[in-house]
Design goal:
Layout lengths: L8 H25 L13 H18 L3 H20 L6 H4 L2 H16 L6 H10 L1
Helix pairs in contact: 1-2, 2-3, 3-5
């Protein structure tokens, strides 16, 4: 099959990385600051609070493209941990235990970890500047 969007691959990857990072940030702000939404904020020094910190800072690093491979690898592990701690005890199947989002984040971040920050990222901008 012809890759009709192939010429936009780097731009679409940057958009993919940015949107997943941004969505991850909002999961963290919901845990830490109860925003957006009306959930109760987590205590900072709790398992949920630590997850919120990883989500906010890791999501920002992924979205901006700053050490995205490492941030995404940690975020992927966090989502795998969340799945097995929170969702898997209810049922193995993500569709039954409502863990689809954790699984999707886990594998999306694993993909980002394998690709790195990409062309359109802060990391790439800094490396170009050093070459001059």
């Amino acid at each position: 099959m012809d890759r009709f969007l192939g010429k936009y691959e780097e731009l679409l990857y940057a958009l993919f990385r940015f949107m997943f990072g941004l969505a991850f940030i909002f999961h963290g702000t919901q845990k830490l600051f109860a925003w957006p939404g009306d959930a109760k904020a987590a205590e900072l020094f709790s398992q949920r609070g630590l997850a919120g910190v990883i989500e906010v800072f890791g999501g920002a690093m992924i979205a901006l493209g700053l050490w995205s491979a490492w941030a995404a690898f940690i975020a992927s592990g966090t989502m795998a941990f969340a799945y097995f701690m929170r969702h898997a005890p209810d049922s193995f199947w993500p569709i039954v235990n409502r863990g689809e989002l954790a699984v999707l984040y886990c594998f999306a971040f694993l993909y980002i970890a394998s690709r790195g920050s990409g062309r359109y990222s802060i990391e790439q901008a800094f490396s170009r500047r050093r070459l001059r």
